[in-house]
Every structure is written in structure tokens, then in C-alpha cells.
Design brief:
CATH superfamily of the largest domain: NAD(P)-binding Rossmann-like Domain
Radius of gyration: 23 Å
Strand order of the largest sheet: 3-2-1-4-5-6-7-8
Structural class: alpha/beta
Bound molecules: 1,4-dihydronicotinamide adenine dinucleotide
Number of helices: 11
Distance between the termini: 64 Å
Helix content: 40-55%
CATH class of the largest domain: Alpha Beta
Order of helices and strands: EHEHEHEHEHHEHHEEEHHEH
């Protein structure tokens, strides 16, 4: 099989000064891409900044014969990061939204700052960088976007209300951008990685941190953003050498015209039955709802405001 090359492609990897992002940046450069190595160089809680993290990765890439430039802006300032790509390399093809911090604390003890900083870096950051790249993608009819989500977002995680909310929001963002981008050949997917890094070293035992190499995740990011990959709007997961996908499944449910809360209680086992559950797209969902309406018969326009306990039909 031929090597997946990225010659003449320009890639921004945010948060590429360490952990997962560093491995992506190095791999893209090895495969011929010109890489913007973005990193604010702060600590894992989103405070402080330095240029050294991005610089080190750029040096590593250049020493191996690759092409890269550093950018030290926070991801909230996406225009500056995209400007670095345009000024140095003349174009932008791929955005890997990877920068991240943690502000773990139980919901009861969470401060506004914990919430705001997480939203700012993960959600606003991914929005900002992708938004700045979007006009270039549209004009050249080519773009690839990765949104880094997390199992904390998909399943929830104790002490990470802020982080899990932001990470699930990124799934929605990836899915909507895939719909809006498709006719311009802009593909967007959500990535769920698991790897040992400074973010996970506080929650994982040391041997697991060492074993779960970020390099296990790298091939998935590379393939998903290659011009030959047609996936878009999906959630992909990688860690420990395992690669897979996660989808939202919707049960068959039940149409109960003019239902009361009591009707729902009586039919609960059918409502939550997942035996014939399947994956839907947004159009199919609306189609099913319209056909549910037809089961209401001629009285479908009435009784929608029924909040009482008694049946009105
Ligand atoms: P990491 O801490 O090693 O890397 C994150 C990088 O982002 C750091 O180098 C940091 O300096 C940079 N950064 C932080 N705030 C920034 C900002 N405002 N602007 C620019 N750069 C900034 O962590 P890791 O594990 O490599 O995480 C990468 C991404 O993967 C994050 O989005 C994280 O939430 C996500 N993730 C990681 C998992 C894991 O198991 N390591 C699990 C699920 C998600």
C-alpha cells in the first residue's frame, strides 16, 4: 500500500508542544506536510505561558529535515494562528484542534473561572481556529478538521462537569461542520483519544501513563485528515492500539398520540427498549417524527397543551 503523503499540505496542530499534539506534528512533517506547531506553553490548568514548548517541537521537526513554524498564541485567537500558516506557507489545509487543559473539581465546588477557562480553551479555541481557516477551506474547496473530544464527554466523568460539557459540545461542532462543509469538500470528525500525557498522569497509574503511548493515536489523526479519507461527521476513538468508532443510537420508541405522563409510565418499557435501536441522521429523524404525526389521525392538531393527568382523547 502506498504511503499516505501530505506534500504541499499545510497543517495547524494546536497544543502541539507536548503530549498527543507533538506526535501529530512530527508525523505530519515526516509525511511531507508543512506544520504550524501551536502551543501557548502554559501549565495543565491553563495558567502561565512560554515559547519553549512549541520551539522544541519545531527544532525536532527541522532536525529531521521537515518543515515547521512555531506559533505561541492561545487558541482563542484563531486568526493569528491561521495567519501564521498563511504568512509562512501560503495556505491552510488541515486543522487539528487538540489544545487542552483541565480544571477538575466537583460541580458543587466549581468556580466560574474553572468553567470559563475550560470553555475558552476547548470549545471557543476549536471554534476560533476552525472559523479562521474556514474561508480558505471554502475557497480552495478542501479542508480537513479534527475536533478532540473525550470519553469524559461521551459518558460523563466525576469531577469534570466543565470538561465533559466542552468535549461533548465539540462532537456537535464536528457534526454540524461536516454538514455545512460537505459541498466544499471540507470534512470534519471528532476524535476520542486515550493516552498517557501530563493531562492524564494525575488520574492514571504511572505504568499506564507510560504504556498508553500518544503514538498509538497518531495514525488515526493522520488517516482521517488525508485526502483519500472520505469519513466526515463521525466519532472515532484510539488508544492502546485499539481503533474504533462510536455512534449515537436511537431506540424504536413508540408513538402515543396525545400521551399523558401516566401513558408514558404505562408504556415505559417500549419507550426505552433498545432492541431495534439504530443510528440515524438528522433527516431520517425528522422523517420519523413526521410519520409519527400521521399516526395521530385527524385529531393531530388538538390537545398539545394538555398538562393534566387525565386523557383528553
Ligand atoms: P497535554 O497537556 O500533553 O497537551 C495539551 C497541550 O495544549 C499542551 O502542550 C498545552 O500547552 C497546550 N495548550 C493548553 N492551552 C492552550 C491554549 N490556550 N492555546 C494553545 N495551546 C494550549 O495533553 P494531551 O493529553 O496531549 O491532550 C491533547 C488533547 O486530547 C486535549 O484536548 C485533551 O483534552 C484531549 N484528550 C486527551 C486524552 C488523553 O488520554 N490524553 C483523553 C481525552 C481527550
Amino acid at each position: 500500500m502506498s504511503t499516505l503523503r501530505f506534500d504541499d499540505r499545510v497543517v495547524i496542530v494546536t497544543g502541539a508542544g507536548g503530549g498527543l499534539g507533538r506526535t501529530y506534528a512530527i508525523e505530519y512533517a515526516k509525511r511531507g506536510a508543512k506544520v504550524v506547531v501551536n502551543d501557548l506553553g502554559g501549565d495543565r490548568h491553563g495558567t502561565s505561558a512560554s515559547t519553549s514548548m512549541a520551539d522544541k517541537v519545531v527544532q525536532e521537526i527541522k532536525a529531521a529535515g521537515g518543515q515547521a513554524v512555531a506559533n505561541y498564541d492561545s487558541v482563542e485567537f484563531g486568526e493569528k494562528i491561521v495567519e501564521t500558516a498563511i504568512k509562512n506557507f501560503g495556505r491552510i489545509d488541515i486543522v487539528v484542534n487538540n489544545a487542552g487543559i483541565l480544571r477538575d473539581v466537583s460541580f458543587g465546588n466549581m468556580k466560574d473561572l474553572d468553567w470559563d477557562l475550560i470553555m475558552k480553551v476547548h470549545l471557543k479555541g476549536a471554534y476560533s481556529v476552525t472559523k479562521a481557516a474556514w474561508p480558505y477551506f471554502r475557497k480552495q474547496k478542501y479542508g480537513r478538521v479534527i475536533m478532540t473530544s473525550s470519553n469524559s464527554g461521551l459518558y460523563g466523568s466525576f469531577g469534570q462537569a466543565n470538561y465533559s460539557a466542552a468535549k461533548m459540545a465539540l462532537v456537535g461542532l464536528a457534526k454540524t461542520l461536516s454538514l455545512e462543509g460537505q459541498k466544499y469538500n471540507i470534512f470534519s470528525n471528532a476524535l476520542v483519544p486515550t493516552a498517557g500525557s501530563r493531562l492524564t498522569e494525575t488520574v492514571m497509574p504511572e505504568d499506564l501513563v507510560q504504556a498508553l503511548k500518544p503514538e498509538f493515536v497518531t495514525p488515526l489523526v493522520v488517516y482521517l485528515t488525508h485526502e483519500s479519507c472520505t469519513e466526515t461527521g463521525q466519532i472515532f476513538e484510539a488508544g492502546a492500539g485499539w481503533y474504533g468508532t462510536t455512534q449515537l443510537y436511537r431506540g424504536k420508541g413508540k408513538v402515543i398520540p396525545h400521551a399523558t405522563a401516566e401513558d408514558l409510565k404505562a408504556n415505559w418499557s417500549s419507550i426505552v427498549d433498545m432492541n431495534n435501536a439504530r443510528h440515524y441522521n438528522a433527516q431520517e429523524l425528522m422523517g420519523e417524527l413526521v410519520s409519527a404525526l400521521s399516526e395521530h389521525g385527524n385529531s393531530s392538531s388538538g390537545n398539545t397543551g394538555n398538562t393534566g393527568g387525565s386523557k383528553t382523547h
